[in-house]
Specification:
Elements lengths: L1 H15 L2 E12 L22 H18 L3 E7 L2 H13 L6 E4 L8 E6 L5 E5 L10 E8 L2 E9 L7 H18 L4 E7 L6 H4 L14 H5 L21 E2 L12 E3 L2 E3 L2 E5 L9 E8 L36 E7 L1
Parallel strand pairs: 1-2, 7-8
Antiparallel strand pairs: 1-14, 2-4, 3-4, 5-6, 6-7, 8-12, 9-12, 10-11, 13-14
């Protein structure tokens, strides 16, 4: 009874208060303890890698700490193995006094890791955008919410890694953009997740023969239309109705990164918004933040990723968080 009243109070404050917070976090391989044959070798339960109850609980507890401190109303997650792992995270948050009564996962395709959502708001619906039939591509999770009197559409992404060329990321971008045209960019739409793409990918990959097999065309900039001769800015959404604005431009250039590969800082995680969130009606974008408390960094200033032993055989140490930093955006309710 107390929990139910707390939830009603929380939802009332969120809906009729001043803002809604939406976050994204690649948690770096949250696997469960069931052996189903799809695991990465290091996450096969109860082997010399020591992925066991103790390390699993440590991983869940660490992710719980981050999400609890984010205090977002809706959290998009990447690299969740299963519905069971997501449910364990949901329960752990509840034990910490942070309640997300609604959850969804894109498990329509048996990919090794998947995208998911935790929410304080009920879903109007959730569905998956099937990128291709191949397990090579992860499905995109679409969710619709009604917040106050407004509809909000979220699309959770985890595109192909940069071990492959840009043409592989364009496959996901085309499926996503097609769906945005069906909805209409005047809707309040948020695209978020791990796009494995820099907010100015068109500049970075142009001389990289491994990536640039598309004659300079990128998924995040050209297909999604966050670049139109120049980077799209918020004001451009008033005239370019099918453009998208990448929220990285809200931060100082030195802060525009969420991942480190070797010594290179990268902005693989992104949040993009549609014209419907900058038309001064209903839900409207307010601010963008990179969540970067000290405990999420190691002694070299890199994200304190989930750690393995240095020697052989390697095993999970039960320490660390993720190789990605979380991002979040706040929206006002007019």
């Amino acid at each position: 009874m107390i929990r139910a009243l707390w939830l009603l109070w929380l939802l009332g404050i969120t809906v009729w208060g001043e803002q809604v917070r939406v976050a994204t976090y690649n948690v770096e391989n949250l696997f469960d303890l069931k052996r189903d044959g799809n695991e990465y070798t290091e996450y096969i339960p109860n082997t010399s890698w020591k992925w066991n109850t103790q390390t699993y609980r440590a991983k869940i507890d660490n992710i719980t700490r981050v999400i609890a401190e984010l205090n977002a109303d809706i959290v998009a997650l990447q690299e969740i193995e299963s519905r069971e792992a997501l449910r364990e995270l949901q329960k752990s948050l509840g034990r910490s006094g942070v309640y997300y009564p609604y959850m969804a996962i894109a498990d329509g395709k048996n990919s090794t890791v998947k995208v998911a959502l935790l929410s304080r708001f009920p879903f109007d619906y959730t569905k998956e955008l099937r990128v291709t039939q191949s397990l090579k591509y992860r499905n995109i999770l679409e969710a619709k919410f009604t917040i106050g009197d407004d509809a909000l559409y979220l699309f959770v992404n985890h595109w192909k890694a940069k071990s492959g060329p840009e043409s592989e990321r364009i496959v996901s971008a085309r499926v996503l953009k097609k769906r945005l045209y069906e909805l209409g960019h005047d809707k309040a739409i948020v695209l978020l997740g791990d796009f494995n793409s820099h907010y100015e990918e068109h500049q970075l990959f142009i001389k990289n023969a491994k990536h640039n097999n598309t004659r300079g065309i990128t998924g995040i900039n050209h297909t999604l239309k966050s670049y139109k001769g120049k980077p799209v800015q918020k004001e451009d959404l008033l005239t370019c109705k099918d453009c998208l604005y990448n929220l990285w431009y809200e931060l100082d250039p030195k802060e525009r990164w969420s991942h480190v590969f070797k010594s290179s800082k990268e902005a693989l995680d992104n949040i993009l918004i549609s014209a419907g969130l900058w038309n001064h009606q209903g839900l409207e974008f307010m601010r963008f933040t990179k969540f970067n408390p000290n405990y999420l960094f190691d002694n070299k200033g890199k994200p304190f990723r989930w750690s393995y032993s240095r020697g052989h055989p390697k095993f999970h140490l039960g320490k660390g968080y993720s190789d990605h930093l979380p991002l979040y955006a706040d929206f006002t309710i007019k």
